[in-house]
Design brief:
Blueprint: E1 3-9, H1 28-40, H2 42-46, E2 54-56, E3 59-62, E4 74-76, E5 82-84, E6 90-91, H3 93-101, H4 109-119, E7 122-128, H5 130-135, H6 137-143, E8 145-146, H7 151-159, H8 164-170, E9 173-174, E10 178-182, E11 188-192, E12 202-204, E13 220-225, H9 227-235, E14 241-244, H10 251-261, E15 265-269, H11 274-284, E16 289-290, H12 298-301, H13 313-318, H14 324-334, H15 343-347, E17 355-357, E18 361-362, E19 366-371, H16 377-390, E20 402-403, E21 406-407, E22 418-422, H17 427-441, E23 449-453, H18 464-477, E24 481-485, H19 501-515, E25 518-524, H20 543-548, E26 551-558, E27 561-569, E28 577-585, E29 592-600, H21 607-621, E30 625-626, H22 627-637, H23 643-655, E31 659-663, E32 669-673
Parallel strand pairs: 1-7, 13-14, 13-15, 15-16, 19-25, 19-26, 22-23, 22-24, 24-25
Antiparallel strand pairs: 2-3, 3-4, 4-5, 5-6, 8-9, 9-10, 10-11, 11-12, 17-18, 20-21, 26-27, 27-28, 28-29, 30-32, 31-32
């Protein structure tokens, strides 16, 4: 549908005290017609602004386009009305357009109407009253003095660091309320100063819309957010500078910039506030280079972005002591895809390291926990997750159990939402285990745990699109911890023993840097250990895996007691610790009812090493003994050692070629020291 509706328009806001041209626009007919068209197909209208639209009751829902919505908080209905349950906005389709584009629906109704009309295929052709334009700003400009001769205007310009020479060069004049200046198309604009401190934004007063300033043919075109920044840039010696009208990036602005992009290299200097950074994202999408000048200023590097009144490029020169030369360097650096850090960044104060599990699990860390089959490593991490969800101590000692006259201390945890990706156990088993953990700790049903079991599309950590989906999911749930079970199932086409595993782990590091989450990867140990192996060599896969980690934890099981020790750490060393697995079955079944781990202080966390030493010592005295004789001989010397643990140590000593195993005709195994 391409209906042409003619309407008289004021083309923007009027200066205070000037005759209004709003009376020249008959709003009722086109507005009602446009609303009727929107109501006839609201999905068509809102789909141009919203993503992931889904049917929801009597209306539809989507992520709210008015803010960074983490959930589908925005709903709209058949009559075109809409509401966001996150940011609180509500209204009809026209007020939605006004909010989205930063327009005043009362004073800029024609602009709102035009954008809404275009969204439903209607082209509004405006007729402008030349008499009104001629009697407003042009007359005021003719009567005004040089802006440097009006005290309040001069004070404002001086606060922006703009010289008298630039004022005269640009033809800036002023009266008691406004700095008035000519536009390159022959019309005029005004900017409020001293007597209207609440009116800091640009005021359009004529048919002129879009950019302020005329490109002069140079290869580079600098874009600022508002005229005062343009005046300041020109004052500093930059010659090809234009301004957008504040942070509201309307479709006409985007169209104009898209046309200029074919002729110039466009550089945009956003204000350091949320609207400015949002505008920067809009301009990036059409290929404008955004110069993040504030990242080069130590005073601003670690500053939270304010909602309003952030630093603008004028402040770079005035408050921050920047120069044209220093800004030119920043512009050149903006051409590089890599963004350097400096000693100024190094000297900045940073907050202390935060933990999700104190002393073990840092925020923003990449961690692997690994071990052999059946060693309860996954169950142990599920137990950790259960404690984090409710903020209780992890691995506190069993009540009443004391070793060396000291009870086992637990590890403090910090609550955070958690995402669990299961690519190993399947839905039934993972839910059964979390049910058992939940009942042991009385975890509420609304705890922020989000489980994805065998999700499709499958996570392939060697693919950029899959990593992007992972990042989107983490941001949606605001997760502080992500667990992936297991690494071997998400490496895509990358073989885990190849050097390309370094790239896979780097992709996980990108996820952490983008989201701030911690990632735990569950993995396996090697089946065969190298000769003279160190503990870290038990981690299966290429050495680049271990090199990329912040922490690697090896889990070893001895019946219901497991021992965890760090085999790689970048931070503070994690001391070995042990845990006891306890569980309860449902009556007359083998199904778990509840399960949890308690902290356990064994008499020696080096029991495994002691057992291995005793095995070798025993074989030095009695070579060629049978398996059962060797096990019983070691147990006589180390009564606390279990049969399972001794047999495990024998197997590992054979794998590392420290002892030799021979098998007789009847299958009997005998051992001797090498």
């Amino acid at each position: 549908m391409d209906t042409e509706i003619k309407a008289k328009s004021s083309q923007g806001r009027q200066a205070e005290g000037t005759p209004s041209t709003q009376d020249n626009l008959n709003h009722s007919i086109p507005a009602q017609k446009i609303k009727a068209i929107i109501a006839s197909d609201p999905v068509r209208f809102f789909s141009q602004f919203c993503q992931d639209i889904k049917r929801a009751g009597k209306g539809w829902s989507s992520h709210c386009p008015l803010h960074d919505d983490q959930h589908a908080s925005f709903v709209f209905f058949e009559d075109g009305g809409a509401k966001c349950f996150a940011c609180g906005w509500s209204g009809d389709a026209l007020s939605f357009i006004a909010k989205l584009h930063g327009l005043n629906i009362r004073t800029q109704f024609a602009d709102v109407l035009k954008i809404a009309a275009e969204a439903v295929g209607i082209n509004i052709q405006r007729r402008v009253s030349e008499r009104k334009i001629g009697q407003t700003l042009k007359d005021r400009y003719d009567r005004a003095k040089s802006a440097w001769e009006v005290t309040s205007a001069a004070a404002y310009l001086q606060s922006k660091g703009i010289s008298r020479a630039t004022v005269e060069k640009l033809g800036l004049r002023a009266d008691s309320e406004y700095i008035i200046y000519p536009h390159h198309d022959g019309y005029f604009r005004a900017h409020a100063h001293g007597f209207n401190p609440s009116r800091k934004s640009l005021w359009d007063h004529g048919v002129s819309v879009g950019l302020y300033g005329a490109p002069n043919g140079e290869e580079r075109l600098i874009i600022t957010e508002g005229e005062p920044d343009t005046w300041k840039m020109i004052d500093e010696g930059f010659s090809n500078v234009v301004a957008i009208p504040g942070a509201s990036i309307t479709k006409p602005i985007l169209d104009q910039l898209a046309d200029l992009k074919s002729k110039y290299n466009l550089y945009y200097f956003p204000d350091f506030d949320k609207p400015g950074l949002k505008a920067a994202e809009s301009l990036r999408k059409i290929g404008v280079k955004v110069v993040e000048w504030y990242r080069h200023v130590p005073k601003l590097n670690n500053q939270a972005v304010p909602d309003n009144h952030g630093k603008d490029i004028s402040d770079f020169f005035i408050e921050l002591g920047g120069t044209k030369a220093s800004l030119e360097r920043i512009i050149q650096e903006s051409l590089l895809p890599w963004k350097p850090l400096s000693m100024a960044d190094a000297y900045q104060d940073r907050p202390p390291i935060e933990y999700l599990v104190y002393g073990i699990l840092e925020r923003g860390a990449l961690i692997i926990i690994y071990g052999g089959p059946g060693d309860l490593k996954t169950f142990l991490i599920q137990d950790m997750v259960g404690n984090i969800l409710i903020g209780t101590e992890w691995l506190a000692g069993l009540p009443g159990e004391v070793f060396f006259n000291v009870s086992t201390p637990g590890y403090k945890t910090v609550k955070t939402p958690i995402v669990w990706f299961d690519f190993d156990n399947g839905q039934r088993r993972i839910l059964d285990r979390f049910s058992a953990i939940g009942k042991a700790y009385n975890i509420p049903t609304d705890a922020p745990l989000f489980i994805y079991s065998m999700p499709q599309p499958w996570l392939n950590a060697d693919r950029a699109d899959s990593i992007a989906l992972l990042i989107e999911t983490i941001k949606h749930h605001k997760a502080g911890l992500v667990v992936i079970d297991n690494l071997g199932n998400v490496t895509g086409d990358t073989e885990e023993n190849s050097a390309d595993m370094g790239k896979v782990l780097s992709n996980f590091r990108q996820v952490i840097e983008t989201t701030g989450t911690s990632i735990i990867l569950i993995h396996h140990q090697r089946k065969m250990q190298p000769i003279k192996a160190r503990s870290g060599d038990k981690l299966r896969g290429h050495g680049s895996i271990e090199a990329a980690l912040d922490l690697a934890l090896l889990v070893e099981r001895d019946e219901d007691i497991i021992t965890v020790k760090s085999t790689k750490t970048r931070g503070v060393d994690v001391k070995p610790f042990s845990a006891r697995f306890t569980y309860e079955h449902k009556p007359e079944t083998k199904d778990l009812l509840s399960a949890r781990f308690f902290g356990y202080t064994a008499q020696s966390v080096n029991t495994k090493e002691e057992i291995e030493n005793e095995i070798i010592e025993f074989l030095s005295i009695s070579p060629g003994v049978k398996n059962c004789e060797l096990v019983n001989g070691v147990r006589e010397t180390i009564p606390g050692a279990s049969v399972h643990k001794i047999r495990q140590c024998i197997s590992e000593l054979v794998s590392s070629r420290k002892i030799r195993e021979t098998v007789g005709n009847k299958g009997a195994k005998r051992y001797e020291k090498i």
